[in-house]
Amino acid sequence: MNRRRAIGVGAGSGWALTGAAGGRPSAASELKVSVVLPGLYGLDGTLAHPPTLRNAGYGLRFVVVVENVSPAAVYVWAEGNSEGHGTLSFEVAAGRAASTVRRVEKEWSKNVVRLERLAPGGLHARVVAYDPPAGAPREWEGWPFGAKDSRVEVTLRAVFEQAKAGAGGKVMPWAGRVVSPEYKVTLLNA
């Protein structure tokens, strides 16, 4: 269990927003999160194949981009340690059913906690390997793929969230929650 799970961050659901205090912009306005899910278009500009996530065992993935939209540098937890491992999740809705997709928890035999600096306008990319190759362990849990050979139309939103950290270093990691716009996606269980 990592520190974030132990203190209960991300255990609840809802739409928490970080408000402005003392004239400082809210934490949510410092970062922007986007999901890169390309659709395929014909030469006439019509959508030929909408964005689709396939559960096929081919090692498929997509990218989530976190952008610093503030005028100052922002520090986010690097992904390859216990602090950054669970900072990205997804809210998936299919009709009235909703679920949360999260990284599978992992034990850290070697855990070098570190930050990444995002300069103003800087980008932080996370590769989401949602479809592991046959025989490889799953990195994500909770994708609501339907039965074999089914297609499920869903609305997907990426959530990037970091808890407030103790003052243990010279720089303070960004703390807050930002949510991407909604994306219409097809989940195909191939």
From TrEMBL:
Domain of life from the UniProt record: Bacteria
Name listed for the protein in its UniProt record: Uncharacterized protein
Natural source organism: Limnoglobus roseus
